[in-house]
Amino acid sequence: MTQEEAKNKIGSLTAEINRHNHLYYMENKSEISDFEFDRLMKELQDLEAEFPDLATPDSPTQRVGGTITKEFETVTHAFPMLSLGNTYNPEELEEFDKRVAKQLEDEPYTYFCELKFDGVAISLTYENGVLTRAATRGDGTRGDDITANAKTIRTLPLSVDKSKAPARFEVRGEVYMSREVFNRINREKEENGEALLANPRNTASGTLKMQDSSIVAKRHLDCYIYSMVGDDLPVETHEEAIKLLEELNFKVSPTYRKCGSLKEIEKYISDWEEERHNLPLDTDGIVIKVNSLAQQRELGSTAKSPRWAIAYKYQAEGAQTTLKEVTYQVGRTGAVTPVANLEPVLLAGTTVKRASLYNANEIERLDLRIGDTVSVEKGGEIIPKVTAVDPTKREANSQPVNYPDKCPECETPLVRKEGEAVHYCPNTKGCPPQIKGRIEHFIQRRAMDINSIGSRTIAMLYEKGLVKSPADLYSLSYDDVYELEGFKDQSTKNLLEGIEASKAQPFRNVLFALGIRYVGRTVAEKLAAHFKTLENLKQASYEDLVGVHEIGERIAESVMEFFTDEEWLEEVQRLQEAGLRFEEEEEEQQEQASDSLAGKTLVVSGVFTAFSRDELKDIIRKHGGKVAGSVSGKTDYLVAGENMGPSKLDKARSLNVNIISEKDFIELLDLTI
Ligand code: IVH
Fold first, then answer.
1. What one-character-per-residue DSSP string does 334-363 give?
2. What's the 62 CA to ligand 1 centre distance in angstroms?
3. CA spacing 20 to 30 A to 354: which of 232, 434, 497, 586?
4. Contacts of 335 (CB under 8 A, 6+ apart)
5. Which atom of ligand 1 approaches the CA of 174 most closely?
6. pLDDT tens per residue across span 98-156
7. Do 529 and 672 touch, CB atoms closer than 8 A?
8. Could you say which of 42, 70, 116, 218 is catalytic?
């Protein structure tokens, strides 16, 4: 391909990818499958690799990340990033309005109301239509350059229509993680036995400062833009600026409203008080802005915040109570979670006695002391959390919370890994809650699915010395169970039948049930599908493991460690002897892998290296595609190997069929080889 041809192709691919990206992320529509989208992206990536001087800073390939930032550069904001004054009731709002009226000397004015998004402030600079810099707020004057990470946010335009925008301008907005994404990450963490993330805001903030932008890309951050700043903006009101931002394809939350009076503002406040909980992200109030930019200039700012805007904070659904004690829970992986034990208090219809404190950093951040008056809130999470301490109500000689240095359950000295917020009890094999936690993990629905056992039964079995590891379950006798408190003939039989039935669970469930650190349900599926048998997995080298798609160093190390531990190996052997399945069955392997190729017809031709031609055809069918013998107008893809006949290739080209290599095919379907 000549430079000129490549340039044209890059241009058309970019336009097409941007169009699909916009359709998908901004309009919730899609015209093509993920597979096809990935293929377009791959084609563009390959072209840019071949013609590096044709790659542009606003290429959609930037969205997948890959840049490693060792240290974020400090940058100075062209316009300071101020904060907002807060109001908490209609009276304070009225005072704000009076101050505005007075300073504007009875000139007429209107307001513009928006929700106050609870995320991380960001400033984006566009020059000649292209995003050139993204920066955090920092101290308001100087922030960190996080351009590479910001570019992974799919809804953020990497370039805008130059003819409609000023030559240089900045936009400000709020980067956030939707509750949905946040909950998904936490569910995965829970499954992997990792400590949970505290809230979407902190997670978004931490994600923006990650060094590897390809990991940022996978965390699906999003961003609402709420203002435009610059010296010569082609607009006279904030409302016009918002319309211009929308026209330039920025993602603006459609929740704004122009308000002519305090009464209208109060209506906006009450309209959103409940409704805001249906938005994809947390909001903690509203922002009221004077609409005219000339009047904004006239009102000016103090050193900290503008006089033309104010925040109105909704009352958090919280309550105040006293902290009686902090206790520490030890989970299956040994992670220690501090829990606040509270004087019971009524909150959103339920009595709250306990609240999560997450980790030692959180206790430090709150500067928590026993006997403190604390605020508890119920967020999206089920367990309420302590959000603040009221220092004015603190007793003079109150005692700080001393984080224990020994496990509260087994007295083993706790360890804290470099850079991690969480303390762990390293006594994996002897610490009672870790043992019971592992058995609970083992019997859960997505693992061995033994629903005839609950955590109370596990506790009894453990305390009686009958079950100290999952394998012990399989040697329980009728008498063992019958003698437990609350068990009669039928319940004993049910329990034993449940255990017996679990032996039919497929290998992937067994692998997940073993509770290997970082091997969650999805990873277990991948490993089972790739290695097929436990024996193969045991024999796998570090290189074999990291060679499997999506299996990283951390997982590989953890798997290796598991299989070098004599006691775990013995446990596995006992489970094998009990009759559990340690091999993936043929028919399970034949299962539908995905529907990535649904409705697509593919032709396979030539000689391949990783797979045989028949294997490739099999894979296509497993992913929902159809295999055809010859290229025709109905062919969507030609998977082209070595030495294929030129006539087939020519025909495919003349019919505009997508021609992909074996390598492309493997990558696009995320196949493991
Ligand atoms: S306008 C001078 N609009 O609130 C500041 N800010 O305390 C003008 N925020 O750092 C900001 N939603 O991160 C504005 N609709 C909104 C907002 C908003 C959230 C955040 C922003 C800012 C902080 C101010």
1. -EEEEEEEEEEEEETTEEEEEEE--SHHHH
2. 27
3. 434
4. 193, 194, 195, 422, 423, 424
5. 13
6. 999 999 998 999 999 999 999 999 999 999 999 999 999 999 999 999 999 999 999 99
7. yes
8. 116
Phi, psi of 27 (to 5 degrees): -115, 5
For residue 151, give the 3-state DSSP assignment.
coil
- Confirm whether 116 is a catalytic residue: yes
Please report, for residues 58, 132, 158, the alpha-carbon distance to residue 126 in angstroms, rounded to integers and kept in the order given. Answer: 11, 6, 9
Q: Write down the pLDDT at residue 255.
A: 97
> What are the tokens at 579?
């009759």
Query: What does the pLDDT look like over 468-482, one tens digit per residue?
Result: 999 999 999 999 999
Predicted pLDDT of residue 296: 97
Which residue type, as a one-letter code, is found at position 562?
Answer: F
- Sign, CA torsion 92/95/101/104: negative
Residue 348 pLDDT: 67
Going by C-alpha positions, the residue among 390, 330, 319, 331 that lies closest to residue 355 is: 319
pLDDT, residue 379, reads 61
Backbone angles phi, psi at 460, to 5 degrees: -65, -45
Would the CB of 117 count as within 6 Å of ligand 1? yes
What is the Cα–Cα distance from 539 to 663, expressed in whole angstroms?
Answer: 27
Q: Which of 151, 88, 144 is nearest to 116 (CA)?
A: 88
Q: Which domains does the chain have, with CATH numbers?
A: 3-62 (1.10.287.610), 76-313 (3.30.470.30), 318-393 (2.40.50.140), 432-578 (1.10.150.20), 592-669 (3.40.50.10190)
Regarding the beta carbon of 287 and ligand 1, being less than 6 Å apart is answered yes
Q: In the numeric block, which tokens belong to residue 453?
A: 């056992």
Where does 90-134 have alpha helices with state H? 90-103
Distance 83 CA to ligand 1 centre (A): 7
pLDDT of residue 78: 95
d(CA 129, CA 108) in angstroms, rounded, equals 35
The span from the CA of 223 to the CA of 311, in Å, is 19
pLDDT of 673 reads 60
pLDDT tens, residue by residue, 535-589:
999 999 999 999 887 788 989 999 999 999 999 999 999 999 999 999 988 655 5
State the number of CA atoms in the 13 A half-sphere of 254 facing the CB. 3
| Ligand 1 atom showing the smallest separation from residue 121 Cα | 13
Residue 84 CA, ligand 1 centroid: distance in Å: 7
SS3 content of the chain, % helix, strand, coil (to 5): 40, 20, 40
**What does each C-alpha distance from 619 to 296, 419, 623 come to in angstroms?**
62, 42, 6
Q: Please report the beta strands in 47-160, taking only residues with DSSP state E, as ranges in sequence order.
A: 74-76, 86-87, 111-117, 120-127, 130-136, 142-144
CA distance readout (Å), 300 to 113, 384, 590, 668: 19, 40, 68, 54
User: DSSP strand E in 158-293: where?
Assistant: 168-176, 222-229, 257-259, 283-290
Structure-token pair, residue 394 = 């603190």
Which one of 83, 124, 290, 299 would you pick to mutate in the ligand 1 pocket, going by the greatest count of ligand atoms within 8 A of its CB?
83
Question: Strand order in 120-127's β-sheet?
Answer: 130-136, 120-127, 168-176, 222-229
Question: Would the pTM of this model clear 0.85, i.e. be above it?
Answer: no
Residue ranges of the chain with per-residue pLDDT less than 50: none
Q: How far is CA 523 from the centre of its chain?
A: 17
Q: How many angstroms from the chain centroid is the CA of residue 614? A: 38
